[in-house]
Each structure stands twice: as structure tokens, then as C-alpha cells.
UniProtKB/TrEMBL annotation:
It holds the Pfam family PseudoU_synth_2. Keywords: Isomerase, tRNA processing. Residues 10-170 form the Pseudouridine synthase RsuA/RluA-like domain. It catalyses: uridine(65) in tRNA = pseudouridine(65) in tRNA. InterPro entries: PsdUridine_synth_cat_dom_sf, PsdUridine_synth_RluA-like_CS, PsdUridine_synth_RsuA/RluA, RluA_PseudoU_synthase. Responsible for synthesis of pseudouridine from uracil-65 in transfer RNAs. This is tRNA pseudouridine synthase C. Its EC number is 5.4.99.26. GO terms for biological process: enzyme-directed rRNA pseudouridine synthesis; tRNA processing.
Length: 243
């Protein structure tokens, strides 16, 4: 596990795509988890996740090294004091930057959330996004002779479940590789032509004020080989992901 940042209070890793943060009965067949792997890597040190990344999403994941620090940090995430930056490849051309304020109904799992309130009102969900690069490929998908894609930077101001995927779906700019909210035709094309079998969503950076030193911290995570292959195929410099 790549450790991006570590001190006496916090540790951050670059979570691989396809890896669960912690054990879940919903994925009983899984054998590798970020928490257990990191704990073993740190010699048995307990770690406490401060936020979550979905299984198919890669990138910066921050942990506290004590329950006391976790209790101190959690309100900072809830209070939007921690800034998150994501990058994604989406279908279509996103032409301009904007802020999407589109409330989302809570996504409930049929089994684990069967006792939850089913008719809960939509919750506030806000995402700022901007296009960084666009491409048109000669590979047809559907009825069109070419396919268009955009590299997008996204900064969520709220933290709803699957917020970025659902917001991009709402804009009809589905994130490539999203099997729940995406477009299967484009997902299939990326698998066949770019050997890309993952969700093209990456948590690139986390910005916060350190709770002990009071100094600003920016933690960045590099992308994996699948991302690099797509970026190279589209002639997008990796420096775009540092924007």
C-alpha cells in the first residue's frame, strides 16, 4: 500500500481501485481490505478511516492513528473544512465549468438498509466541476461515427453516497466504467480498445489544516496504469491531473 503522508496523528494512502476500505458482509468473498493491509504494514497500529471511497474509486484516503484524533477530525469533514479534488473521464464534451446544486435521495441497500426510512427527503448535494481536456475518437459507439470524452476535475462540497457518479449521470456525462450509473456501451468500448476495466474516478488530492500544527497540508495521489494508458491514448499530459 502506497503511503502518501504519515505523522504521529494521521496517515494517508493511495487506495487502489477495486479494494474495499474495510470488511463488509455485502462483499464476503473479498479477502483484501485497506484497513487491515495498512494496519499490518504499520506493525499492528490501529487506524481509523476519516472518510470513505467507494470500492471502484482510487486515490487519497486519510486515516487517524487514534480514536481521539478520529473524533476530532470527523467534524472537520462534516463541516466542509477538508477540501477534496477528484478527476474523472466522462462521456461527451463538457464545455464549461459550473456548480451543480442537485439534491439526491439517499441510496439504500436492499439488505443492509431494509429498516431505514424509505421516503426520506432528498439531501443537499453540491459539486463544482470544470473540463480540463476533450477528445474525439474515431471509434463509433451507438449510432455515432465518433465518440467524445472529457477529462473533468470535480470538487464536491457535500459528501453524499455516489454523489459524483450520480451528478455526472444527471448531466448525461456518465463516468466511464460506472456500472450502476453509467453507460454500458462506452464502458465496453473502453474495455475493448483501451484495456480499461475500472471506474475512471480518482481522488487526486485532499487539502486540510493539520489539527495539531495548524499548518496547511495538501496530499496528492498519482493515478494507476489504467489511467496512464487512457491519458496516453488521448494525448492528455498527466500534468492535467495536478490542476
Amino acid at each position: 500500500m502506497e503511503i502518501l503522508y504519515q505523522d504521529d496523528w494521521l496517515v494517508a494512502v493511495n487506495k487502489p481501485a477495486g479494494m474495499l476500505v474495510h470488511r463488509s458482509w455485502l462483499d464476503r468473498h473479498e479477502t483484501r481490505f485497506v484497513m487491515q493491509t495498512l494496519r499490518d504494514q504499520l506493525g499492528g497500529q490501529h487506524v481509523f478511516p476519516l472518510h470513505r471511497l467507494d470500492k471502484p474509486t482510487s486515490g487519497v484516503l486519510l486515516f487517524a492513528l487514534s480514536s481521539e484524533m478520529a473524533a476530532e477530525m470527523m467534524p472537520k469533514f462534516a463541516g466542509r473544512e477538508v477540501k477534496k479534488t477528484y478527476h474523472a473521464v466522462v462521456r461527451g464534451w463538457v464545455k464549461e465549468a459550473a456548480v451543480l446544486d442537485y439534491p439526491l435521495k439517499e441510496e439504500l441497500d436492499k439488505m443492509s438498509d431494509k429498516r431505514a426510512l424509505q421516503d426520506k427527503a432528498p439531501q443537499e448535494a453540491v459539486t463544482a466541476y470544470r473540463p480540463l481536456a476533450r477528445v474525439e475518437t474515431p471509434i463509433p459507439v451507438g449510432r455515432y461515427a465518433t465518440s467524445r470524452y472529457t477529462l473533468v476535475e470535480m470538487k464536491p462540497e457535500t459528501g453524499r453516497k455516489h454523489q459524483l457518479r450520480r451528478h455526472m449521470h444527471h448531466l448525461s456525462h456518465h463516468i466511464i466504467g460506472d456500472v450502476n450509473h453509467g453507460d454500458g456501451r462506452h464502458n465496453r468500448m473502453f474495455r475493448e480498445h483501451y484495456d480499461c476495466h475500472r471506474l475512471m474516478l480518482h481522488a487526486s488530492a485532499l487539502e486540510l489544516i493539520h489539527p495539531r500544527t495548524g499548518l496547511p497540508i495538501v496530499i496528492r495521489a498519482a493515478v494507476d496504469q489504467s489511467w496512464q494508458t487512457v491519458m496516453q491514448a488521448f494525448e492528455w499530459p498527466l500534468s492535467y491531473l495536478e490542476a
